[in-house]
Design brief:
By secondary structure, the protein is α+β, with helices and mostly antiparallel strands. The protein folds into 2 domains: 81 residues, no CATH class; 108 residues, Golgi alpha-mannosidase II (Immunoglobulin-like). It starts with 25 loop residues before the first helix and ends with a strand.
Length: 200
């Protein structure tokens, strides 16, 4: 058991309001994995300020023999997030690199539903356009399935057949432009579901 020690960066004085835990202690590492796994069930990520201070070389340099034997594995690789989530964000970032979403114009999409099904109020959606290049995102911000319609503000689609591809799943949807410009794009999303659509 460590005595009460203030946390510190090796290049600066200690922080008097921060208690230092032993990052080499396997019990602490197991508890952190359990805690982060619980948080991961509630959100996509956790911000860890000064996270580099727990890396083995830095922790050993800061605390020396007081920390005990340096583990074979580094601190954060043991605490890595869900690999499926990591793969999702890598795919999302790669998708975002393919088109310059800073150019063009973004617009919030209105959503509608039915008197006996107010779940559509849990949908948020934006559309983006730059010339003939178009994108639409929609997210269900609830823990229940949701259906609704999204008002697409592009009247030039009337009379066309539109093909929309979800850039994250590869699924392609065929929709009539008259429907998109009229009633709106119908979506049926599971709990916390989403689409990131591009017009082909």
């Amino acid at each position: 058991m460590w005595p009460s020690i203030s946390g510190r960066d090796p290049c600066f004085p200690a922080w008097p309001d921060v208690l230092q835990l032993n990052a080499f202690d396997q019990g602490l590492r197991s508890a952190v994995v359990e805690t982060l796994s619980g948080i991961a069930g509630l959100c996509d990520g956790v911000r860890c300020d000064m996270a580099m201070l727990l890396m083995n070389p830095i922790f050993e340099r800061t605390w020396g023999s007081r920390a005990g034997t340096c583990p074979d594995t580094d601190y954060w690789p043991e605490e890595l997030p869900d690999l499926d989530l990591l793969a999702f964000y890598r795919q999302l970032l790669e998708t975002l690199r393919r088109v310059d979403l800073l150019d063009g114009s973004w617009q919030l999409c209105d959503r509608t539903g039915w008197p006996d099904n107010p779940g559509y109020l849990n949908l948020v959606s934006w559309c983006w356009r730059n010339g003939d290049t178009r994108r639409l995102t929609v997210v269900n911000l609830s823990d229940a399935p949701v259906q609704g319609r999204l008002k697409i503000p592009w009247d030039d689609q009337k009379g066309d057949v539109c093909h929309l591809r979800d850039v994250l799943t590869g699924a392609v949807y065929e929709r009539h432009g008259d429907e998109l410009c009229g009633e709106g794009l119908y979506v049926d999303l599971p709990a916390w579901g989403f689409h990131f659509l591009e017009w082909l």
